[in-house]
Amino acid sequence: MGLKAERVAKWAVGEPQAPVRIELHPTNKCNLKCRFCWQSTVKEIDTSTELSDEKLYSIVREAAEIGVKEWIISGGGEPLVRRNATMNVFELIKKNNMWGQLTTNGTLFRKEDVKKLVEINWDQIQISIDGPNSKIQDYLRNKKGGFANAVETARLFSKYKINLDKNQPYLGFNTVLNRLNYDKLDEMIDLAYDVGFQLVYFEPIYGGYLTKERLTLNEEEKKELRYCAKKAKKRANRLRIDTNIDRFMQTKLVDKSDFKHVVLRETENSFNHFISAPCYQPWYLLGIKANGLAGCCSTFEVGEYIQDKTLKELWLSKTFNEIRNNMLNKNLPEYCSKCSVVVVMDNKDIRKSLKKNYEL
């Protein structure tokens, strides 16, 4: 949290700073139709307005120039659908000494892709696996053989790290908590250990895209989850697998139906608007969707298009500053309901650092 808090603190005293992190969606196209994804009800994805390859590369180069330090490459869609451009983005990020994480469904990797990411010292890979077996994973991801493909990719990353004598990338699973896997969390830890991964990162499900079935947890299942989470945490400690599962021992964080109110509940009353701000992402994070719409949040729906703008122009624009002012006044947009437990926890850590280390 050090650099994030440092830059937020400078904003607080009237010194605008560059974003610490950019979250980039190279494409909205995906080879899967996951049951809890926004694409599950979309028949066809229009990719005609996606940013050009050269625009993606220029964004990375400018980001390095203005002081961006971290990248999350995700979707949207599956980044590896747009293989050539995305692989070039990875290389540019590392050539400019920035940290990078890729979130992927893990089903489209070729051996040479895995080897390249290990060779360039890519920092972190998160493969989305939501069940410890093919029955659950293939059902949730709507893809027969999807579990086998993702696990094969996971093993390849571990293999190439050993063969090339590399410590990176840090390897993890992203797992969306739902009614089909909440009682199998310890098995997810076992799977990570089996394929040589270091992390299982759990995310609450967003039920807003579900139309045909219940995948969210009911109240009884949420109560049972506390026991399952404790069991998984013990297994993770024994196998030395990193995890955030202990954060879901609070039932209010299990799904995203109430996350806008969760964000507000975590705020503090203070005469300083920055100390009492519900969220700090508008001051350190820039999100860029595949069509060029950019905002200062992980789940943004309001922003400006980057096609004919520089990063600096966008980041300091009237639209972005209005979003920041609304946040200071605790006027949260509706898309905050899709927020993540990790953002809530990050906000708490940044707020703690601001109070402890800075005179605001």
Short description:
By secondary structure, the protein is α/β, with parallel strands linked by helices. It has a single domain, classed as TIM Barrel (Alpha-Beta Barrel). It is built from 13 helices and ten strands.
Describe the structure.
There is one protein chain. The chain has 360 residues and is an alpha/beta fold. The chain has a single domain (1-251, 286-309), classed as Alpha-Beta Barrel (TIM Barrel), CATH 3.20.20.70. It contains 13 helices and 10 strands. It has helices spanning 2-12, 53-66, 83-95, 111-119, 134-140, 146-163, 185-195, 219-239, 259-265, 281-284, 311-315, 318-328, 341-357, and strands spanning 21-24, 70-73, 99-104, 124-128, 170-176, 199-203, 242-243, 285-288, 293-295, 304-305. The chain has a 10-stranded mixed β-sheet with strand order 7-6-5-4-3-2-1-8-9-10. The chain is globular and about 50 Å long. It starts with a helix and ends with a helix. The model has no long low-confidence stretch (mean pLDDT 89).
